[in-house]
Write a structure and sequence with these properties.
The complex is a heterodimer of chains A (about 70) and B (about 600). With about 70 residues, chain A is mainly alpha-helical. Chain A has helices spanning about 20-30, 30-35, 50-65; strands at about 1-5, 10-15. The chains are: A mainly alpha (about 70), B alpha/beta (about 600).
Chain lengths: ~70, ~600
């Protein structure tokens, strides 16, 4: 989630990006990470950059899927 | 051993961005401050109908409520003319209706404002749309997030009573005929079903932080309107957050806690004072907290047939630098005698899989967190090892192997020389949600649960022999410098000051304890007596009532008491002054 200033609205929300969501939810707890990437999560843990990107997107989907 | 997440788990930079944006408006920047008023009453929708605007803007106090299933159309939140006192409510779990949603600045969910709600409810014949129809038309009831009719995670407002109905009613419910009802406008956030159903709070900070920002944002706009109507000076705000977890650092370092402190300590705003009121928690005697040293062991009781992971956290002491102390390592002895151990391979932060019989039965995360306390300027490090046990009832046999239930022996094999906190995260099932979640606990034969009389011991012995502790079980979300932590009292004596060592005949035994042994800063009734639990609270529909127990219902009574005191002109700028006010025994008349 990002916050941007807007002359008419003051601080306001802007739509969340996957990267932002990761920062906020990962701050929440390692459990959020485990529920996304753990044995039951949508992505296997790997070091490949493409898979890392996939994991971020998976987390974003997990969270956005709850909205 | 696998690689840790590709980014630090604590995203300091992102959080700082949020704080900087708040600070922009805090520093008296003319554009930022005046920027609120042009939007009011224009295309974004008015916050309150003229008939619901505070009758005395000089005295008005804004009440913020963050909860779940808040019945915003309830009569207790209306004026005598039937207009809504709810200036704005963000239903985070409702289907979005952009671009029609008021404000259009929310990333998800739907916002309703007072004027829009009044227009929606007003029928051509002059009557009001029923509460149920209002909830259905606004997506608060019966609709999934995609807007289609369907089963939600929980009954929400379809139930006789909801947590949000009880909490919001106790905090801000007033008779429409009360002459002061209009002077207590409400800004609310209804948290999504899934968030509340997951009692571990794994995803909670994102939503709760956003909820706090929303309330502050809308309260600033309402304050600007009050100032235009004649109010001089800032407007007080009381925000009730009857929500919490059982693990986490209890040192005020959580981002969610720092955000509350930052807002509460800001004295250069449209809003002041801003008080956050939170419950002390209900888990004092649940065997979820302890203190453990290197070389010591404790049993972790993992329940069978549990479809959710179980979590225990071990928090090290403060360190000036991450390399000052050895990293925490542990071993597990499973019920069948198998042994698994963490191995972080000399990495400071990382993830370690614990295997048994070729199956991953748990995963450990070790993090060294750099902590910066913004009020004191202190900087230090703390390490946390989070051990997550796989569910004992796998929900997907293709992906998960069930962990064994029973007693797992946890032994700290390495780590700092000083004693460390060990906390089991909450994982119980709320009665209003279907499904199964089962709470894990710590077990230690040396723990003395009952005294000679057979009654539970309310406090730790002077020389505890057990790893388990009652002190330090208070809600981690209330561990900052400013929040008012509320414990549950037995019987009704209004709002009183909480003290260490109060007996079980005065304080609910489940009330979490601060490290000092006090069940919070203040007490309010959570049970009628030791035998009759709960207090009378609002149901979801006007006229309905139900009992609800716990510190969740104690906190909003303090929020109400505080708001009414501020409305009467009491000067209560901070936590200490509020406690002193309660010590004076000043109780506003019960509305």
């Amino acid at each position: 989630m990002g916050i941007a200033s807007d002359a008419g609205e003051g601080p306001r929300f802007v739509p969340a990006s996957a990267e932002d969501l990761r920062g906020f939810t990962a701050d929440a707890s390692p459990l959020a990470h485990y529920m996304t990437y753990g044995p039951g999560g949508p992505g296997a843990v790997a070091n490949d950059p493409a898979e890392q990107l996939g994991r971020r997107e998976a987390l974003a989907r997990l969270i956005e899927g709850t909205f | 051993m696998v690689e840790p997440p590709d980014q630090p788990l604590l995203d300091e930079q992102l959080f700082q961005t949020l704080l900087d944006e708040l600070a922009l408006a805090d520093c008296g920047d003319a554009m930022a401050l005046t920027g609120f008023s042009p939007a009011i009453g224009t295309g974004t929708g008015g916050l309150l109908s003229p008939q619901a605007m505070p009758s005395d803007p000089v005295r008005a106090v804004i009440m913020g409520v963050i909860d779940h299933a808040i019945p915003f159309a309830h009569r207790a939140f209306s004026t005598a003319s039937g207009h809504s006192r709810v200036a704005a409510i963000w239903m985070q779990g409702a289907a979005p209706d952009r671009p029609a949603s008021a404000g259009g600045d929310l990333p998800f969910g739907r916002e309703l404002r007072g004027v829009g709600l009044d227009l929606l409810r007003r029928r051509p014949d002059g009557g009001l749309l029923s509460e149920e129809q209002t909830y259905r038309q606004t997506g608060a009831l019966g609709l999934r997030r995609d807007g289609r009719e369907g089963r939600r995670l929980g009954p929400g407002l379809a139930a006789r009573i909801s947590h949000g109905a009880a909490v919001a009613g106790l905090a801000a419910g007033l008779s429409p005929d009360d002459p002061d009802s209009r002077n207590l406008p409400i800004i609310a956030v209804s948290l999504p079903d899934h968030l509340v159903a997951d009692t571990s709070g794994a995803f909670a900070p994102y939503f709760v932080q956003a909820a706090i920002i929303f309330i502050v944002n809308r309260a600033r706009r309402l304050a600007a309107r009050l100032q235009a109507a004649g109010r001089v000076g800032p407007v007080p705000v009381v925000i009730n957050l009857s929500y919490g977890v059982t693990a986490g650092p209890r040192d005020g370092s959580l981002g969610l806690v720092q955000l509350q402190d930052l807002i509460a300590l800001n004295t250069r705003d449209h809003l002041h004072p801003v008080h956050f009121v939170l419950p002390s928690g209900n888990h004092r005697l649940e065997r979820l907290h302890g203190q453990i040293a290197k070389g010591q062991s404790v049993q972790w009781q993992i329940p069978p047939d549990d479809p959710t992971p179980n979590v225990v956290e071990i928090w090290g002491p403060r360190q000036a630098q991450p390399g000052d102390q050895p990293g925490i390592e542990l071993s597990l002895t499973l019920p069948g005698g198998q042994v698994a151990a963490t191995d972080f391979c000399d990495q400071r932060d990382g993830i370690s899989k614990l295997m048994a019989g070729g199956v991953e039965i748990a995963r450990a995360y070790r993090q060294f967190r750099q902590i910066r306390r913004r009020q004191s300027g202190e900087r230090y490090w703390r390490q946390c090892l989070t051990l997550i046990a796989a569910p004992t009832l796998p929900v997907d046999s293709r992906a998960l192997h069930g962990a064994p239930s029973g007693f797992w022996q946890l032994t700290l094999t390495d780590g700092p020389a000083t004693v460390m906190d060990i906390d089991v995260q909450r994982d119980d099932r709320l009665s209003t949600f279907p499904g199964t979640r089962r709470q894990s606990r710590l077990y230690d034969q040396a723990y003395q649960g009952q005294g000679p009389s057979g009654h539970p011991l309310d406090d730790d012995p002077a020389d505890p022999r057990s790893v388990l502790r009652r002190r330090g079980t208070a809600n981690a979300y209330g561990s900052g410098d400013t929040q008012l932590r509320v414990g549950g009292a037995i019987g009704g004596n209004g709002v009183t000051v909480a003290t260490a060592g109060a007996s079980g005949s005065e304080v609910a035994r489940y009330s979490g304890l601060l490290l000092s042994g006090s069940p919070g800063d203040l007490l309010a009734q959570s049970d009628r007596s030791r035998l009759v639990s709960g207090v009378m609270a609002h149901g979801c529909l006007s006229g309905s009532r139900a009992d609800m127990s716990g510190t969740s219902v104690a906190a909003p009574q303090v929020a109400r008491w505080l708001a009414l005191a501020l409305l009467e002109g009491a000067d209560l700028p901070d936590r200490a002054s509020v406690i002193a006010h309660a010590a004076d025994g000043r109780q506003p008349p019960s509305p």
